[in-house]
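[Q] Does anyone have a clean structure-token version of this?
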Amino acid sequence: MLLGAQLRRLRESQGVSREAAGWHIRASESKISRMELGRVGFKERDVTDLLTLYGVTDSRERTALLGLARQANTPGWWHRYGDILPGWFQSYLGLEAAARMIRTYEVQFVPGLLQTRDYARAVVLLGHGRAPTDEVERRVALRIERQELLRRPNPPYLWAVIDEAVLRRPIGGAAVMRDQLTALIEATRSPNIRLQIVPFDAGGHAAAGGAFSILRFADQDLPDIIYIEQLTSAIYLDKREDVDHYAAAMERLCVEAEPPARTPDILTRILRDLD
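[A] Here you go.
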């Protein structure tokens, strides 16, 4: 997506049409469109030819963009889980890894990036209860490995809003929930994590339709992506009107939720209620 956005900027700055760019690399206009949206792999030869067409002669700029092309074609760490990952979720993991900010609202489960191993296992078993034990453990390992992005240098900022029902629902039993609540209290101490809770007494609210995430990227030319997961698929939205609608709903949720400073106390109170 990052490389595609930069190629689009270069093309438009030179007044080159998608049709002309496609002809230059012996491809169609639709392929140029897919490249610029980040929805197709990149051949280095195509990128080289497009950079020449767009008048990019600086060797450092060409090297940087060709390096992006190589990175875009390198399988992510999740590639080794390809046999248990649907394609629509592999796309999300790529977007999540590239995001500068992840805002998420959850109504049923603790967000995957904040789940403990035992809680993650309980969630996996809900959907894959008949799967072999080794497959279940691989799914759990995938979820835990995914959380490493929050501990890497320059991690993304995670802003999670969780419905109180998530914290009251004893996924995996009381002991599992006790450990999960303790882990959430610890997470609130991380400088790149903000956690808010929508209490029961908030009544109806802006996101009554269900869980969703908003991914924002460092490159300002990349649109925010709205991710809505369903039982067997997912929806990705990037049209301005859709993004604005969900962003407004998220802002209202953050106002209706308890302030982040109160989150540790709320979690501690719920934790005591388990005893």
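[Q] Thanks! Anything notable?
[A] The first strand starts at residue 99 and ends at 106.
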